[in-house]
Every structure is written in structure tokens, then in C-alpha cells.
Amino acid sequence: MIRFAIKAAVACSLAALAVGTSVTANAALIMGPSQISASSSLPLYSPAFPVSALADGITAENNALNGFAANANSGIITLDLIGTYDLESFVLWNDVNVFLEGIKDFKLHFYDDANGLLGTSATFVGPQGSLAPRTYTFASPFRGVSKVELQVLSAHVGVVNNIEIREVAFNSAPPIPEPSTWAMLAAGLGVVAAGLSRRAVK
To answer: In this structure, are residues 91 and 121 in contact, taking their beta carbons and an 8 Å threshold?
Structure first.
């Protein structure tokens, strides 16, 4: 009987936790001009490759050579988020014409809406010329982010040695459960502890 009660209490507690997090458990993709505004002081390789193209929501390679290209192999690109987000990963579509180029070593700096630095990612390495996106998951989510600085440290050497990016995006992180959810879980586990204590006394 006690064993059944313990199982029921644990099940109820886990169900309560699931209810508290199920609404946003799946990460949402933050992408495109309605969610990201890109800017940079880096010199353009050509007016055909503006910085806005790396956050236009278009990831395909085509005859227009979609993407952003700078006449530099390092520098800062600012990604202003339209809103405030909890971020768990960064998604990169590297290289404009997919010819063994694109950014190589880079890191990300995260800021809140008061322009306070929240933290910096590890140094990542971009793929050398790839149609497929590459996802970089952070060691822990960065929460309350309004702006991200993409710091390019180096670029792959192909025909040119320039910054070339087709598109960028982020995956949002599941929220921290509300205190009430943790309270329900604690209450359920309290029932388990009480049952075990009564069993020990008998």
C-alpha cells in the first residue's frame, strides 16, 4: 500500500513539473528580420553582400550569391534581437558562394537590454564552405538577451580570405520552471518522505 502511495506521489510530482514546462519545452528558432537586425562597421566586399543579408531569413545559395561578405577577415557583427530572449544555441549558415570559405574562429558576446554584458561563449569553429547549417550549443543558456556581438577572429582561406556568412539564427532555451512548479514537486516528494518515515517507525 505504501509502495503504491509512493509511486503515485512521485508520478504526481513529475506530472506537475511537466505541466510547468511543457508549453515552451521545444526550442523556437529566432531568425529573420522580424527577430534579428544585423549591423557592422566592417567594410563591404561589395554592395551586393550587405550585412542585412545575414539575417534576412534566406538560407539557400543561389545565383544572387545570398549573404554578407566583408572586405576583412576579422571584426565585430552586431545582432540586435527584436525582443528579449533566453538563448541555448547559435545556428550558422557559413560561406556566401560555398567555395571553401566563410568564417573560421569566432565567439559570441551576450548583452541585456541595458547593454550590460551577460557573458561570452566559448570559441567556436565554422565549417569551411557548407550548405548545411551548423548548430553551436552553449555550455549553459544565456538568459534575458537583447543583443549579441558576433566576434569573428579569423576566416577560412579560399579564393579570398574574407568574412562570408549566408545566415545566422538562435535557438531559444526552455524557461526556468516557476516557483509554484517547484513547490508542487517538493510537496509530492514530501509525501514520499512522510510515507517512508511512517514505515520506518512501524
So the answer is: no
